[in-house]
Amino acid sequence: MSDHHVVVVGGGFGGLQLVNGLKGAGVKITLIDRRNHHLFQPLLYQVATTILSTSEIAWPIRRLYADRPDVTVLLGEVTGVDSAAKTVSLRGGLTLGYDTLVLATGATHAYFGHDEWEPVAPGLKTLEDATTIRRRVLLAFEKAEMEADPAVRDALLTFTIVGAGPTGVELAGIIAELAHFTLPKEFRNIDTRKTRVVLVEAGPRVLPSFAEELSAYAQKALEKLGVEVHLGKPVTDCNADGVKIGETFVASRTIVWAAGVTASPAAKWLGVPADRAGRVVVEKDLTAPGLADVFVIGDTASVMREDGKPVPGIAPAAKQQGGYVAKVIRARLSGKPAPASFRYRHQGSLATIGQSAAIIDFGRIKLKGWIAWWIWGLAHIYFLIGTRSRFSVAWSWLWIYLSGQHSARLITQRETMREEG
Which helix or strand (DSSP H or E) is residue 320 part of? Predict the structure, then answer.
């Protein structure tokens, strides 16, 4: 093994693909992440909506590399990078030197200048976010069952999702199904079928990244489930009592934010240009401008396609970037010519609307309905890590499909019986 030290910050799709791509390269790798697990984010909304448990979509990073002595895993939070000294600083005072640095630090929620909305309108990026949303959704029904005031009860039974991208659409569909089909027989004082699920989108249509015909189908499918779709008006206020859509106030005790993201502070660490979302504007080989030994990938990077459109912030894009950077590093170490500039190959866009419909956009080929839903399910099972997870998720989906019952409806947090602000 050589002394070349590759430091990878972030154990998401891009970071893991890079580490996997360097297997046998003869380098020392240090993988740093703030959490001890890799998360399969495309199914995170299913944890938030009681379909899957946390262990079905997350895996300990150390376990993934237990048989890779070249990989050292550190649980820590990076606070800065000194590109001149080639060091990475961690919270707590630890400093690591690197020969090659790869930043795959992801993104978090963007509230467009209204960070004060976050406590009442959590986003969905981590397992903690998912369990918080799940707790709030389930507690809303429990509190409504005991509430005597009709106005308060109606507010408890109104769920608002801000943002109609894939996450927002998927959340709205599953919450509607939960309320209208799964829970009605379990409550005595409330009719959960009267639950309102409100989906708010400032733009002109839901799922704007999909073809218009698929977007229209998705909206009709949502409305068939009972979801109220509000288009063309942004949310202008969020508080514990509800949301203001344009000038209209909607009383809602449970709000979920799915309207935007902002990148990690990687651009600030490096002192390089960033786009409006804070992503590093990288070179064609995914290096940071002026820093040939620093790569930036995934949601942290702003990468343009050949047609001038940005590479989407989705898992396949991050994995392609991680694999590409691994090839570049290998070429540098072996003295071979570097690969051609990174080229993103779009493999299609997928989104579900509830448990029986989905849309898939492969470009020339577009699918919708239950056939798309089955293809969506098979694709996600394929990309899960390990046979156990694939079997467990497939069984959970089959059980829900046959019985209509969600299997992850436990409220386990200590603050369950406390009044949330």
Answer: helix 315-334
Token pair, residue 38, equals 């890799």
Phi and psi at 413, nearest 5°, equal -70, 150
As a whole number of angstroms, the distance between CA 299 and CA 105 comes to: 7
Q: Is-contact 27 3, C-beta < 8 A? A: no
pLDDT digits (tens, 9 = 90+) for 1-49: 679 999 999 999 999 999 999 999 999 999 999 999 999 999 999 999 9
CB atoms within 10 A of CB 416: 13
Q: How far apart are CA 397 and CA 24, in angstroms?
A: 38
Nearest in space to 177 (alpha carbons), one of 123, 127, 129, 224? 224
- Residue 24 CA to residue 1 CA, distance in Å, equals 9
- Look up residue 363 and give its two tokens: 């470009």
Tens digit of pLDDT for each residue in 91-123? 999 999 999 999 999 999 899 999 999 999 999
> What is the rounded distance in angstroms from the CA atom of residue 121 to the CA atom of residue 13?
26
In the numeric block, which tokens belong to residue 141? 């029904």
- Enumerate residues 6+ apart whose C-beta is below 8 A from 8: 15, 18, 19, 29, 30, 31, 32, 102, 104
Contact status, residue 177 vs residue 212, Cβ threshold 8 Å: no
Where do we find the tokens 């969020």? 238
Q: Please state, in angstroms and rounded to a whole number, the distance separating the CA atoms of residues 57 and 53.
A: 8
**Cα distance between residue 334 and residue 189, in whole Å:** 71
Give CA–CA dist 175/369, Å, rounded: 19
**Distance in Å from the first CA to the final CA of the chain:** 55
Beta pairing class for 28-33 and 5-9: parallel
Is there a catalytic annotation at residue 170? yes
Are the CB atoms for 53 and 408 separated by under 8 Å? yes
pTM for the predicted model, two decimal places: 0.93
Choosing from 170, 177, 283, 415, the catalytic residue is 170
